[in-house]
Amino acid sequence: MKAVISVGILIVILNVKLKHVMYDRIDPDSKGALAFKSCQTTVSIFIQYNAMKYFSVSTTGVVCSLTPLIACILAAILLKERLTFYTIFSVFVVLACVMMIIFGATGDEAEAMNNNTLAVVALCAQPFLLAGGMIAARKMKKNHPMA
After folding, report:
1. I want to staple 83 with a disulfide (CB 3.0 to 4.6 A). Which of 11, 87, 109, 119 is the partner?
2. How far is the C-alpha of 133 from the C-alpha of 119, rounded, in Å?
3. Can you tell me the distance from the alpha carbon of 144 to that of 65, in angstroms, rounded to the nearest whole number?
């Protein structure tokens, strides 16, 4: 409902210049990254709230804390940044530790993981989505004339 009200206010205030302000002024190279970032944010919020139904807050937090590590890997692949051997080694060690935490769950979390495979997949996809959003924002910043 808030989004509908916001769009209504924009239409009233900006009137005929809405397309120019909201779409035409965006750098063409940034439009794909902006669309991805917008969709990624929506999906990530949905996953975060639903993951807390099945997993403890600490498990969700540990998995989401993988975001900087995955961002390093994606930056090396997509933005052609160079990683040192120490960084690569550290990323694999931390990934291994987090996987042990996730797949070594006991009690209610283990039962939730066995019953809800989609929740596990969504939780494991969360850091990739967040890291992708970071890379998209960085790509938009590279294309911005003020950066």
Report:
1. 87
2. 21
3. 28
Quote the CA–CA distance of 87 and 129 in Å, as a whole number. Answer: 21
Q: How confident is the model at residue 21 (pLDDT cuts 50, 70, 90)?
A: low
| Residue among 33, 3, 35, 45 nearest 143 (CA) | 33
What distance in Å separates the CA atoms of residue 112 and residue 47, rounded to the nearest whole number? 15
* Percent residues over pLDDT 70 in the chain: 83
> Which tens digit of pLDDT belongs to each residue from 56-82?
787 788 888 888 888 888 888 888 888
Continuous segment of H or E residues that includes residue 2:
helix 2-14
Terminal-residue alpha carbon distance, the chain: 34
